[in-house]
Each structure stands twice: as structure tokens, then as C-alpha cells.
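Reopening: Short chain dehydrogenase/reductase family 16C member 5 still failing for me.
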Amino acid sequence: MSSGWRSAKKLLVFLTKLLLTVLEAVVFTLLPKPRKSVAGEVVLITGAGSGLGRLLALRFARLGSVLVLWDVNKEGNEETSKMAREAGATRVHAYTCDCGQREEVYRVADQVKKEVGDVSILINNAGIVTGKKFLDCPDELMEKSFDVNFKAHLWTYKAFLPAMIANDHGHLVCISSSAGLIGVNGLADYCASKFAALGFAESVFIETFSQKRKGIKTTIVCPFFIKTGMFEGCTTACPSLLPILDPEYAVGKIVDAVLQEKLYLYMPRFLYFMVFLRSFLPIKMGLLIIDYLGIFHVMDGFTGQRKKQ
Ligand SMILES: NC(=O)c1ccc[n+]([C@@H]2O[C@H](COP(=O)([O-])OP(=O)(O)OC[C@H]3O[C@@H](n4cnc5c(N)ncnc54)[C@H](O)[C@@H]3O)[C@@H](O)[C@H]2O)c1
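Support: Ran it again with your exact input. Result attached.
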């Protein structure tokens, strides 16, 4: 076969596959994608002691999953564990773990493997925010943001991905943020850690895809502000386009994205448009839009989580 004919054949195969993926995308835009069952799946949620982590635990409890709950806050985590049992979970395992400490993550992960078994859905949700302007932010706090919001994802993947690969079955969920898509003033360390988390999850997704590990799924979640207390005091100047989200609504969307095996979930939908605009608009226009949406001032009233972490 001549090289010209081989190239033409390669192009034809590529165009046919492209057409099929476009058709699939059209079908799933018109019809809801089927939802998978997560009954009996071992779901590990980090940061399960409050906020989104707690609500995720309750949703997966109702869906019949085995729950593994991690949090640095023992009391909050035990409360979630109790609530999950009341919501119908029969197997709930709560572990106190500081996800920002690599050795602690590995130690508790080994304990989980011995006591519960292989984790099949890993939700990296634990997160912190300093909410300080870059030059006012102490080095230790910036390092902590990276340890909890990003590096913890490396260590949990190292601990649980090998079994997912061996079983060709698993789902990796990264709770990033809209601050992982677009830089925001007053959130430099948080944004950097969330960009890193997103880039890491996307890269491992590409790696598993290129290795044809079809059983390993990834979901990357980028929400705008959610009323959990983490961004207490923050406001939106444009609630119609960028509303502060209700936690139950956000968690419903996250669980749906997992069940439908969506790769990306941005909330609210306007974020997809913002990311699209950013890819081609001149920076001066982008800054005007950011100013109009009040994004320069979203952190002005930040007080943050009042409870101890
Ligand atoms: N709330 C929002 O507006 C918002 C927006 C976008 C993304 N997010 C992300 O969603 C995730 C959940 O946030 P939330 O709003 O539920 O906040 P939250 O403060 O209510 O919950 C965070 C949980 O993480 C736990 N945690 C903190 N440090 C930890 C550590 N070192 N090890 C283990 N657990 C630790 C806390 O104890 C807490 O239970 C975070 O990753 C956050 O960055 C939140």
C-alpha cells in the first residue's frame, strides 16, 4: 500500500470516528445520558465532615454505596457518618485524615484497603481557602492550600488508582472550582491550587484514555460560589448569570455528572460561555466583561468559614 493511500485511509477513519462522536454528542444533548448504578460501589469522599462532602455522602448513601469518609475534623466526619446511616447506608467507614499530609494519606489509605477493600469512586473534595491578597498571604498558608487542594489528589490517586487499573473499574472525581478555570484577585493561592488540581485530573484522564483503560472514568467539577460557608461574605454582582449556588442543587448536579460519566461539569452554565469567550477575546474586552460582572470585587466581603478546620 502506498504512503498516500495509507494517509487517505487514516484520514477517512478519523473523519468517520469524528462524525460518530458528533452524532453521539447530538443524541446526548437531546436525550438524557443513561445513569449508572453506584449501589455497592466503594465511594471515598475527602472533606466529608461538612458542606458538599457531607451532602455527597448523603446522596451516595441513598444510592446504596459503601461509604468511606475522610476529614481532618473528626467530630464533623462522625456526624456525617451518623447522618449517612440514617439516610440508609449500611456500610459507612469514617477515618480522621489530614489530606494535606502525604504520609498520613498513605497510612489511612492502607487502613481503608485492609478494612474496606478497593475504592472504586474517589472524590477529592477536601478544600481550604485563605482568601488573602497574594502579598498578604503567609507562605505556610499558601503551602497548605497546595497541600490540601492539590497535592492530596496526587497521593490519593497513587493510593487508589492502581487497584482501579487492575480491576479496569473506577471513577476519579476532582472538585476543582471556577477559580480553577479563571484567575481571580484575592484568590491567587486558591486559584493556583485549583488550576493544578484540574490540570492533574485532566492529564491522568488523558493518560488512562491513551492506555485504553476504558473502565476508568473521570469527572472534573468547577463550581462558582456555593452557600456552604467556605466563601462566607462573598457576593456576586450578576446573580442572573453567576448566581451563588444552593448546596443541594450543586451536589445534585455533581452526582448526576458522576452517574452520567461526564468529564466536565461547570456550574452555573454561564461558565462554559466565559471560558469560550476567554479563548479568543482580546484581553481588554475580557477585563471589561470581568469588571461588568463584578468579579474584581467578589472577594471584598470575604470572611470565610468560621468553624475551626
Ligand atoms: N463553597 C464554594 O463556594 C465552593 C466553590 C467552588 C469549589 N468549592 C470546593 O468544594 C470543595 C468543598 O467545599 P465546601 O464548600 O463544602 O467547604 P467546607 O469548608 O464546608 O468543607 C470542606 C471540608 O474539607 C475538610 N478539610 C479541610 N482541610 C482538610 C484536610 N487537610 N484534610 C481533610 N479534610 C479537610 C473540612 O474539615 C471540611 O469538612 C472544596 O474543595 C472547595 O474548594 C467550593
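The radius of gyration is 21 Å. If you still see a failure, please send the error message rather than a screenshot.
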